C-alpha cells in the first residue's frame, strides 16, 4: 500500500530520503557494478553524515568487485572507503559542524551522494585543498607516510626508488619522501608520459620499468624502495638497494605475488618490510589522526599537493574502476557525485 498524505510526514527521516549510489551486486568485476536508488544513511553514535563531493577510487574496490579483497561484505553493498565533502550533521563533541569541508575514511559507502563516517576519522580540510584533492589523501598519503616514515624509518638525505610512480600511491610516496627530507627520489614508470607525471609530482628523475635496475644503479644504489607493484620487478628492486637498504612491500598491482630468497637479504644486509596500512591502523584507534596531524602542515603550505587523476560521474563508476584495473590511470582516480 502506498504511503501518502499526512502519514508520510510522520515517517522517520531514513524512509523519506533517498540517494543515488553505486552497488556491487555480483562478483563479476568492475563492469558489473550498478547505479541504484537507496535510502540515505542515518548516522549512529559517534558518526558524521557527509554530503559527498568526491570519492577516491582505489585498488581494493577493484578487488571487492571480484570478491578478492579481505573485507567481504554481504551483497549487495556500496563500496567506497575515502571521501571528501561537506558535513550535514555531526556529534556535538566532534569539533565539526554542518558545512565544514572534510575528508573522511568511511571504509564502505563512499560511492554515493551521502555517507556516514566515524567522527574520529573525519578531518577538516585546509582551505588550499580542493574536495578532489581531499579525497586523495587518507589512503594514499597515509600509506606512503606509514611506509616511508613509520616502517621504513626514512632519514634525511636518503635516496628513494618509487615503483608505479605516476599512480595515486606512487605520487603520494614521492611527495611524502620529499616533504620528510629525502635526497634523491627516482620514479619508475611504464611510459615517458607517466614519467612526466612523476616529475611534476616532485621526483628528481624517472626511469622506465623495462631495465630499471641498470638505469637506477648507474647513478648509485638507493636506501629505500617503495613497491606497490610486485611481480617480476621484485628481485631487481632488491639489487637496487645499498647496504642497510629497505624494500617496502605495499601491494601487488602487477597481479603476481613475488617470493624472496632470503640469502639475498643476508649477503647484502637488506630488509624486506611489509606495509599493511589498513590492517595496522584499524587495530589502533586514533592512529590515522596521528598521521593526519603529521601531514597536515605540508598540505596547508602546499609542500604536499595530491595529484588528481581522471574524474568520473557516479554513473560511470565502472569506467573509473576499469581505468584503475587496466593501469591506465595517473594520479588519484575519483568519482564526483
What can you see in these coordinates?
Strands 3, 4, 5, 6, 7, 14 and 15 form a 7-stranded mixed beta sheet that branches. Helix 13 (317-325) links the parallel strand 14 and strand 15. The chain has 337 residues and is an alpha/beta fold. Helix 5 packs across helix 6 and helix 5 packs across helix 12. The chain has 13 helices and 15 strands. The longest helix is centred in the middle third of the chain and has 14 residues, at 138-151. It has 2 domains: 9-137 and 307-335, Quinone Oxidoreductase, Chain A, domain 1, CATH 3.90.180; 139-279, Rossmann fold, CATH 3.40.50.
Radius of gyration (CA) equals 21 Å
How large a portion of the residues is in β-strands, by DSSP E? 15-25%
List SSEs in N-to-C order: HHEEEHEEEEHHEHEHEHEHEHEHHEHE
Put simply, the count of helices is 13
Q: Sheet bearing the most strands, described? A: 7 strands, mixed
Class based on secondary structure composition and strand pairing: alpha/beta
Mean pLDDT: 92
CATH-wise, what's the superfamily of the largest domain? Answer: Medium-chain alcohol dehydrogenases, catalytic domain
Shape: globular
Low-confidence stretches: 1-16
**What helical percentage do the residues reach?**
25-40%
Q: Give the tally of structural domains.
A: 2
User: How far from one another are the termini?
Assistant: 32 Å
Q: CATH first level of the largest domain: which class?
A: Alpha Beta
Please report the total strand number as a whole number: 15
In CATH, the topology of the largest domain is named Quinone Oxidoreductase, Chain A, domain 1
CATH architecture descriptor name of the largest domain: Alpha-Beta Complex
